[in-house]
Task: inverse folding
């Protein structure tokens, strides 16, 4: 089975990267390839996903900007015809925001306290079986 | 019925025989464990070298810690309102947090900023915002902590504060407060677009220290942010060692610039966390004070006893608080606050129970404030200085913390000092390594977190989340207004003088104050720094 490739990004000025780094490191431990690109504009994030031919986009939100930034990224992915990419959101995401973003096309949300293995397991299952949106 | 019911019987108790940083702990400590402890040279009296027992003679009996709760969200008016509420309800100092855009020295109308303006802190773009932020606040009377983490923006925003004070007729010598101004925040702890090179960020931070040494005798121009090193992944040993290494590096640079140690060292200050492992935290504070004193004495030979005195603010741990079962956080934060007080903190912020969910709501902010007031007025722990002194356990732990802190400092010395250690990625790797080990321990369940990996339930989180309107529109208006009403030539000239100060290795504070007064925005000032020394890639993955 080819390596699962994940692009991980921070959105806007969100400054806290520790969680994203932990997930990135763990996914590498679990045999995936991770491209971490730091703070980027939505256009840059989507460009990287296309250039890297990634199956998964991991977005980290600790600063609360997800309701502004994530819909924009989803729209760009659709516009570029790469909506097959599984978009995962992690961090501090209130329940009602999770619901809204899942209905807009985010594949899964992993809030604070999520297990690193659970995230890796989800990705493996999703890429193997092409699963639908899951609320984690 | 809580899950893991068998745990309720104690079979799942965390019997780990190691502290959070990995120090092995015995079941029982006796006098033998401290037989070598010399009460005179190892402990001393509170307020006297080696300061193990605290930095003031009667500690809280003589001077209570400052009750300094954080406030900052939305616009300057909204944050001003929270300042007033907290001061009204018994807070004794101001602690202002800025949004990431401001803290990083960017304008609120930057293309990347849209989702972040006013989120996580107050949005400040120019002098007019600063006036509104402190409207009606007696800044000549109350101590003001400005959590300007990153040197890139700290000078510019502090320049606006100083300009505002001058407009109000308050001499700078009367101002009391603190800046964070920590280059590790900028280059290690936080991420952002277009980061300054570590050596330049460090230089900017020392410019502020130097300026304050000459003009603000009551201001703490830097606060070594151990709290944040910890939140980024460090353990207690690393936290203390990095704080001390940073203090030594700043002192060394100030001396290199020609300033006698006693002219600035008394105003160096620090910032620690108070986390779960109560006795380890107490030992950390005590060991840190002793090591700091001994190394400052050794390396700089100060005459003023205040030059080797480690004073610090504490914030109770944010990352230890959980989204699940948020009311548990009230007790967590209370235990943390107790550790800080038993450890002799000079100033304290207690984190709010909704920390993992949102910015502090008014209710959560007040509960945190009351937690401090209960500590002060009901527990009696302020009655005597360093109450845990002489404890077989705490003195043994303090000694062991000291050994490990010294070993870590030696390692950084071998790397060529702190700035080199950052440039090479060593500090990043150390923090990520410790962080990852901890995450694995939590993921595996070996390290227990109540409500997260044990004693969990399916009860939905019932906390009312604090939401507030975006500050973006107001900030856009403020910036438009600023550009429309200023003399553009004057601004351009001032920014050019700032650029010359950077290139000519002069202190940047004077030109920053002039630029801000001329009507330059914070973002425009900081763009000058980035144009010359930006674009540093953090050595992460």
Result:
């Amino acid at each position: 089975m080819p390596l699962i490739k994940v692009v991980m990004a921070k959105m806007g000025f969100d400054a806290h990267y520790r969680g994203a780094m932990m997930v990135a490191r763990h996914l590498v431990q679990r045999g995936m390839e991770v491209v971490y690109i730091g703070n980027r504009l939505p256009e840059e994030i989507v460009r990287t996903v296309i250039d890297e031919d990634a199956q998964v986009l991991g977005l980290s939100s600790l600063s609360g900007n997800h309701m502004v930034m994530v819909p924009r990224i989803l729209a760009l992915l659709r516009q570029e015809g790469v909506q097959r990419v599984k978009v995962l959101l992690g961090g501090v995401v209130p329940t009602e925001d999770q619901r809204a973003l899942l209905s807009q096309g985010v594949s899964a949300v992993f809030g604070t306290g999520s297990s690193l293995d659970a995230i890796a397991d989800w990705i493996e299952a999703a890429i193997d079986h092409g699963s639908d949106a899951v609320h984690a | 019925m809580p899950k893991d019911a068998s745990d309720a019987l104690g079979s799942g108790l965390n019997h780990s025989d190691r502290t959070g940083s990995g120090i092995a702990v015995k079941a029982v400590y006796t006098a033998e464990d401290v037989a070598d402890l010399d009460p005179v040279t190892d402990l001393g009296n509170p307020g006297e070298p080696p300061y193990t027992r605290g930095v003031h003679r009667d500690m809280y009996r003589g001077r209570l810690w400052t009750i300094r709760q954080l406030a900052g969200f939305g616009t300057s008016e909204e944050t001003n309102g929270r300042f007033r509420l907290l001061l009204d309800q018994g807070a004794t100092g101001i602690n202002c947090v800025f949004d990431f855009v401001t803290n990083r020295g960017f304008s609120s109308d930057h293309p990347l900023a849209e989702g972040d303006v006013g989120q996580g802190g107050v949005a400040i773009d120019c002098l007019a915002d600063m006036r509104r932020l402190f409207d009606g606040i007696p800044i000549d009377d109350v101590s003001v902590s400005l959590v300007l983490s990153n040197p890139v923006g700290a000078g510019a925003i502090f320049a606006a504060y100083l300009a505002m004070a001058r407009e109000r007729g308050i001499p700078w010598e009367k101002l009391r407060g603190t800046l964070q101004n920590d280059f590790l925040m900028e280059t290690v702890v936080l991420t952002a677009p277009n980061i300054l090179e570590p050596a330049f960020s460090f230089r900017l931070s020392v410019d502020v220290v130097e300026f304050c040494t000459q003009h603000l005798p009551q201001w703490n121009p830097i606060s070594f942010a151990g709290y944040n090193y910890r939140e980024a992944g460090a353990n207690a040993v690393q936290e203390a060692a990095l704080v001390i290494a940073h203090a030594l590096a700043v002192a060394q640079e100030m001396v290199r610039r020609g300033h006698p140690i006693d002219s600035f060292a008394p105003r160096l200050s620090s910032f620690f966390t108070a986390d779960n492992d109560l006795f380890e935290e107490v030992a950390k504070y005590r060991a840190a004070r002793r090591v700091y004193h001994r190394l400052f004495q050794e390396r700089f030979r100060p005459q003023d006893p205040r030059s080797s005195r480690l004073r610090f603010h504490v914030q109770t741990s944010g990352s230890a608080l959980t989204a699940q079962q948020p009311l548990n956080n009230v007790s967590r934060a209370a235990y943390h606050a107790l550790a800080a007080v038993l450890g002799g903190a000079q100033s304290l912020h207690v984190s709010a129970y909704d920390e993992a969910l949102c910015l502090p709501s008014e209710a959560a902010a007040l509960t945190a404030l009351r937690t401090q007031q209960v500590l002060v007025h009901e527990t009696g722990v302020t009655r005597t200085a360093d109450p845990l002194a002489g404890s077989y356990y705490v003195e043994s732990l303090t000694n062991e913390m000291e050994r490990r802190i010294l070993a870590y400092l030696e390692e950084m010395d071998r790397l060529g000092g702190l700035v080199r250690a950052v440039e090479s990625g060593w500090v990043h790797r150390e923090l990520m390594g410790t962080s990852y080990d901890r995450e694995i321990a939590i993921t595996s369940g070996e390290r227990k977190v109540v409500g997260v990996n044990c004693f969990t339930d399916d009860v939905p989180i019932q906390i009312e989340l604090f939401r507030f309107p975006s500050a973006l529109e107001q900030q856009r208006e403020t910036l438009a207004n600023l550009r429309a009403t200023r003399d553009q030539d004057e601004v351009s000239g001032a920014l050019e003088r700032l650029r010359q100060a950077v290139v000519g290795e002069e202190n940047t504070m004077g030109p920053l104050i002039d630029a801000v007064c001329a009507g330059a925005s914070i973002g425009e000032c900081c763009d000058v720094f980035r144009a010359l020394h930006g674009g540093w890639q953090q050595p992460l993955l």
Remarks:
- The longest strand of chain A covers residues 33-40.
- The beta strands of chain A are 5-11, 33-40, 56-61, 86-91, 108-111, 134-135.
- The interface with chain B takes residues 10-18, 21-22, 24-26, 28, 34, 36, 38-41, 63-69, 92, 94-95, 111-113, 115-117 of chain A (CB under 8 Å).
- Chain A has a mean pLDDT of 92.
